[in-house]
Write a structure and sequence with these properties.
Keywords: Membrane, Signal, Transmembrane, Transmembrane helix. This is Sugar-binding protein. The chain has 1189 residues and is mostly beta strands. It has six domains: 170 residues, Sandwich (Jelly Rolls); 87 residues, Immunoglobulin-like; 305 residues, TIM Barrel; 68 residues; 89 residues, Sandwich (Immunoglobulin-like), CATH 2.60.40.10; 279 residues, Immunoglobulin-like (Sandwich), CATH 2.60.40.1190. It contains twelve helices and 67 strands. The strands form ten sheets. Strands 53, 54, 55, 56, 57, 58, 59, 60, 61, 62, 63, 64, 65 and 66 form a 14-stranded mixed β-sheet that branches. Strands 30, 31, 32, 33, 34, 35, 36, 37, 39, 41, 42, 44 and 45 form a 13-stranded mixed β-sheet that branches. The chain has an eight-stranded parallel barrel with strand order 22-23-24-25-26-27-28-29, surrounded by four helices. Helix 6 runs parallel beside helix 7, helix 7 crosses helix 8 and helix 10 packs parallel to helix 11. The chain is globular.
Length: 1189
């Protein structure tokens, strides 16, 4: 397992027990009458421990523990597991598992349980006020799974509540869910243990009368040429106000629709191809009575059936697991009319030797045939008729599996694109425990010839590998697997790292194939590859998912991949915190945005499929750092695709007719004549150029925005680079809202224009795009974005004060130039509350700071804060955990010259990895093989990491997102104390063939990739076996971590490789390799800068009185004690996080008159039980700090 590819998605080999019920979509409008009742459910099913935490109470004190899961699930891959032993918690104790909820409406809750020695369980729900509602429900005696229902969060007989509003009334939505297993709930109290499994958790919202319903005129709101962009509706309103935004969030179109007769169709004209979001407010007089949001897409003309069904691109589906087949037509409409799905052995052969194909035909295969969608059929999994349903290894089971696979090939050879023999055998998918390479190859040697005999022209692909970071794949090659497959199966997941990692992985696998195949390659079939969206630490934004699927299509074409199947087509659930629910390109049938509505990724994949239809790779231009520039030949002529790992503008010289197409299909065709300079504003999503263009060169043209505030115009700056122009030229930017600005740049010159854009009306991201024209000719599109906040804000988080005490630090900040008054600043912390400030002056461009002591904090505790400022109310909320400041690692105030020389560290506390590190290396020969010393330091601008690593062999074959595979350092930075952050930064630093590199996998609000303003230098002394690392990361790039809080949490590991791949690591703290978990980080305390000693006044030189007595030279200061490492983890495969992330659990903010709805900050990870001893009169420190400009 590796430190940076994420855990491979756990796909269920078991048919889902619940059948998704959907309306027939094709050709009809999906509408609910305006007077009908509408209900919603939210799937909170358990597929892993991600997002869950635990608490163990021994009768006197509670402590945080990791949540656990079991493979014994009701459906899917895992169930939540709570085990109790009175030897650990006493007869008065309990165990609990809980997770935050992102404002889920809960009027009832259902879930499935399987218990041993349990008579009752507790369900805890925390409402929007922070009030905890707990209900004990009886559990009937049963040996199997049974469904339990909580009929009401606050209406059951065994209900109790505390905290928050403290009124016993449910105030939705829910912010947290927990399950409690008490020692007293043991059925037989003479038995010390009890266990509880929980799965398939579903929150139900009560039916509400609907006064406005928006429907679909096409499946999923996918519109192709010739289809009007129209949305049927019913409503009791008299008018609809609507607006359409694009992927950047910019408003593209808006209008008002008058309603007649209570129903109609909302038509929207004039849109380019692309992905859009539609927001509609239904008005009755001056009152909004309904609000709906949905997404839609305008696509290019569908590819021909041959181009689509026989092309390179496809998607993995789960129609064989009871997906509704209504989405299937969108495969063909998108231009990738191929799917990969299961035909379960246990379902088609229920009697030995007899095969019934009726069920898979009815579920999806007959419809696929009708639609011209080609299936890649997966032959799996176990069958209870043979080897008790395990992976087949006995002669009888192997022969039976081979017969089943051959029969399937024979049955579907005219429509299938291939047969995949099993899925992820090495991970034990399908309940298989026979995971060895030898067992698989034995199966392959029997099944492949059987399939070939039954369907000679049908490709057989394997081996069924999931984890490409072990020797399993090579082991199968060594055992002869290559002789039995027509194509190599790969699942090269790298999320949240970008698609660029795919290129290195394909090169590595191809080299391995050629090593065992007489120097010959074999076709590669990527049958799973994808990126989850949502709120999980390893998820990415929907825009990043879209960019990555398009880039993967380009890289797959570059490397000649035979087939590329994106995993997967439709979201598998609606829980945003569960990665397994959110890989899809389309939304789940029960999604609030509408059944099968598109994510941007669907449109980006469709655009790539159209651009690359019939394409062959020609070249890659690497002349500009960070820019990927790929060339292809297509039936329509030359094509280039460009994107960049860091935002930058380039220009190309075009001749003749050239078409510029963005990642979502919007195109501009330019008649460049004998030559015209086009401008490309590159980011993570590809731009396509069709026609004759030169190699790109860097351009100084740019559009930037200053930080913005609600209600104030946004300052913009436009630089136009005309240095290559032979004449003075008038340039114009035309924004999507019609705003135009112009400037003239002289021949061979640059010009800059400062101007203002309309004031934003809400906080969040603010993005604009504008078409650039020169002398009336389209030259390109420029875009820019910034963050909009309230000028007045309240925020809070864990800090360490000047006296070294743990505190909750509240800040009221004023970004405007005008002074104001904080009428009152108050807080609630668990059961304690108080007023910190009354009538406090707050100058312009400054902040007021108040601290609440946390010395007596005994458990994770929720807090809320309110500030009355300038006639409005600010709110913030979060949670804090106990912190032992004395045990925190000390971080000295020291500016480091980042030059690869460790000459700035005298007297700085250090971390000795040989003494306190967790050594997870394989085959280590001792400290000379891998050990070292690490120092953290800081100043007002940067956080510094310095390291002196003993490593006898330097081996770093990779770059970018895959540097973890070789010698490198990974380190994390999170706001607050360990376990408080739900999103954080994770960096890697390595000396690559291209020089020192710093790469970020996880971030808070910025995205993966390079880090603007960071510095890195690495020097290697091969003779001494020593590598020196020095890194400086600006505080402003660290997403919430603040130097003036004097506290952050983090961990690090040093990866080891000696020429044969990654051989493990040595770690300080955890939460990087084995799993992504900020609770395993260490606390780090930023020490204050030391004032220099004053220079004493010179005194008269005394007369000598004889030979002085020598004194001992004082010993140098002893570095502070290094804390013990955090909880270690074994080598892992988690990579973590996305761009974006919605703040962390230790705090958040909301603007004036808002209610603190700032993602996870709104209530954060609320405490389950607070053991808080602070009184209402807790001492608080208040000070005012002027903001730095």
């Amino acid at each position: 397992m590796s430190g940076h590819p994420p855990p491979f998605p756990r796909r269920s080999a078991r048919r889902a027990l619940a059948v998704i019920a959907t309306a027939a979509l094709a050709g009809v409008a999906l509408l609910a009458p305006a007077t009908a009742a509408s209900a919603a459910t939210t799937d909170l099913g358990v597929e892993s421990a991600d997002g869950w935490s635990g608490v163990s109470f021994d009768g006197t004190t509670g402590s945080g523990v990791p949540a656990a899961v079991s493979a014994d699930s009701h459906s899917g891959a895992a169930a939540l597991a709570i085990d109790l032993d009175t030897a650990a918690v006493s007869d008065a104790g309990w165990e609990m598992a809980y997770r935050p909820l992102a404002g889920v409406e809960v009027d009832s809750l259902s879930f499935w349980v399987k218990t041993v020695n349990v008579s009752s369980l507790g369900v805890q729900l925390v409402d929007s006020t922070g009030q905890t509602h707990q209900t004990f429900l009886p559990v009937p005696a049963s040996d199997g799974w049974q469904e339990i229902t909580l009929a009401s969060p606050a209406g059951e007989e065994q209900h109790g509540s505390w905290g928050g509003a403290a009124d016993g009334v449910w105030h939705g939505p829910a912010q947290q869910l927990g399950f409690v297993l008490n020692a007293f709930a043991r059925t037989d109290t003479s038995v010390p243990t009890a266990s509880l499994l929980i799965d398939d958790i579903v929150a139900h919202a009560a039916d509400q009368a609907s006064s406005f319903a928006l429907g679909q005129s096409t499946v999923g709101n996918i519109f192709t040429p010739g289809e009007p962009t129209a949305f049927p509706f019913t409503t009791t309103a008299d008018r609809l106000d609507w607006r359409v935004t694009d992927t950047s969030g910019a408003v593209i179109s808006s209008g008002e629709h008058q309603v007649e007769g209570g129903a109609g169709s909302l038509g929207i004209d004039g849109l380019d191809l692309g992905w859009y979001e539609l927001t509609v407010d239904a008005w009755e007089g001056d009152t909004v009575i309904g609000h709906q949001e949905t997404t839609f897409a305008r696509l290019a003309e569908p590819l021909s059936s041959d181009e689509s069904a026989e092309g390179r691109f496809a998607a993995a589906t789960h129609y064989g697991q009871s997906w509704s087949p209504d989405s299937m037509q969108l495969l063909a409409e998108g231009g990738f009319a191929q799917l990969r799905d299961e035909v379960y052995w246990s379902e088609v052969e229920t009697e030995p030797g007899v095969y019934d194909w009726a069920r898979p035909r009815a579920e999806f295969l007959d419809q696929a045939d009708e639609l011209g969608v080609a299936p890649l059929l997966l032959a799996g999994y176990g069958n209870p008729l043979y080897d008790s349903g395990n992976g087949p290894v006995s002669d009888e089971a192997v022969a039976a599996y081979s017969s089943y696979a051959a029969a399937m090939a024979s049955e579907f050879q005219d429509s299938a694109s291939g047969i995949e023999l099993w899925n992820e055998w090495d991970l034990g998918l399908g309940g298989n425990t026979n995971v060895s390479a030898a067992d698989y190859v034995n199966l392959l040697k029997s099944a492949s010839p059987a399939v070939k005999a039954a369907a000679p022209g049908l490709p057989v692909i394997g081996p069924a590998v999931a984890d490409l970071n072990t020797s399993w794949l090579e082991d199968t090659f060594a055992l002869g697997a290559l002789d039995y497959v027509d194509g190599i199966v790969l699942h090269p997941y790298s999320y949240p790292a970008g698609a660029e990692a795919l290129a290195d992985r394909l090169e590595q696998v191809d080299a391995l194939v050629r090593e065992y195949n007489d120097g010959q390659s074999k076709p590669m079939w990527i049958t799973e590859h994808g990126w989850p969206t949502g709120t999980n630490a390893r998820a990415v934004s929907e825009a990043s998912q879209a960019a990555n699927v398009a880039k993967s299509a380009l890289i797959a074409t570059m490397d000649g991949v035979e087939r590329y199947y994106y995993y997967d087509f439709v979201n598998d659930g609606t829980d945003p915190a569960e990665t397994e629910n959110n890989f899809g390109l389309l939304h789940h049938p029960d999604d609030a945005l509408g059944a099968f509505t598109p994510k941007p990724g669907y449109v980006a994949y469709s655009t790539a499929a159209h651009q690359l239809a019939g394409a062959s790779f020609t070249d890659r231009d690497e002349s500009i750092a960070d820019v990927w520039n790929l060339g292809f030949t297509t039936p329509g002529g030359p094509l280039r695709a460009l994107w960049s790992l860091s935002p930058q503008v380039v220009s190309v010289e075009a001749t003749g007719t050239v078409t510029i197409t963005d990642a979502y299909g919007a195109a501009h065709t330019v008649d460049a004549g004998d030559g015209a300079e086009l401008t490309l504003d590159l980011g993570e999503a590809p731009v396509y150029l069709s026609g004759d263009v030169s190699a790109p060169v860097s351009s100084a043209t740019s559009l930037t925005l200053d930080a913005a505030f609600v209600g104030a115009p946004v300052s913009a700056h436009w630089t136009m680079d005309n240095t290559a122009g032979a004449t003075e030229t008038a340039f114009t930017l035309t924004f999507t809202d019609g705003t135009e600005v112009s400037q003239t740049a002289g021949a061979g010159e640059q010009a800059t224009l400062d101007f203002e854009l309309p004031a934003p009306t809400a906080t969040g991201s603010y993005s604009v795009s504008a078409e650039l024209t020169g002398a009336g000719t389209y030259l390109g599109t420029l875009s820019a974005s910034t963050t909009v906040s309230e000028a007045l804000q309240l925020s809070g988080g864990h800090a360490i004060d000047d006296d070294g005490a743990s505190v909750l630090r509240l800040r009221v900040s004023n970004a405007s130039p005008d002074a104001t008054t904080v009428s009152e600043l108050s807080y609630t912390l668990g059961d304690a509350s108080g007023v910190l400030v009354t009538d406090g002056a707050l100058a312009g461009s400054s902040e007021l700071v108040a601290d609440v002591p946390l010395a007596e904090l005994a458990d994770t505790t929720a807090w809320t804060a309110r500030a009355s400022v300038d006639g409005g109310e600010l709110t913030a909320s979060g949670s804090v955990r106990p912190l032992d400041v004395g045990a925190a690692a000390e971080v000295a105030h020291r500016t480091i010259a980042v030059d690869g020389v460790l000459d700035d560290l005298e007297g700085v506390p250090s971390i000795d990895l040989a003494a306190v590190g967790d050594d997870q290396t394989v085959g280590s020969t001792g400290p000379a093989d891998l050990s070292g010393t690490v120092w953290y330091t800081w100043d007002d601008d940067n956080l510094y990491l310095s390291a002196d690593i003993a490593d006898d062999v330097h081996d770093q074959p990779s770059s970018g997102s895959t540097i973890w595979q070789g010698d490198s350092i990974q380190f994390t930075v999170a706001d607050g104390a360990p376990g408080e952050a739900t999103a954080w930064n994770e960096f890697g630093v390595a000396l690559t063939a291209d020089g020192p590199q710093l790469y970020r996998w996880l971030s808070v609000g910025e995205g993966a990739g390079t880090v603007t303003g960071a510095q890195v230098q690495i020097t290697r002394d091969d003779a001494a076996g020593r590598t020196v690392y020095e890194v400086a990361v600006p505080w402003q790039r660290l997403g919430g971590a603040r130097a003036d809080s004097a506290l952050f949490s983090g961990s690090l590991l040093v990866n080891e490789a000696d020429g044969s791949g990654r051989a493990g690591y040595i770690a300080w703290g955890g939460g990087i390799a084995a799993e992504k978990d900020s609770a395993q980080f260490n606390a780090l305390h930023l020490l204050a800068a030391q004032e220099p000693e004053p220079t004493p006044e010179p005194s008269p030189t005394p007369e000598p009185t004889g030979t002085p007595t020598p004194t001992d030279t004082p010993a140098p200061g002893t570095p502070g004690a290094t804390p013990a490492p955090g909880t270690p983890g074994g080598p892992g495969n988690g990579n973590g996080g996305d761009d974006g992330g919605s703040g962390d659990g230790s705090g958040g903010s909301a603007g004036a008159s808002a209610l603190g709805e700032t993602g996870n900050a709104a209530a954060g990870v609320l405490a389950v039980v607070a053991f808080l001893l602070l009184g209402a009169g807790a001492f608080a420190l208040v000070r005012r700090r002027r903001a730095e400009s």
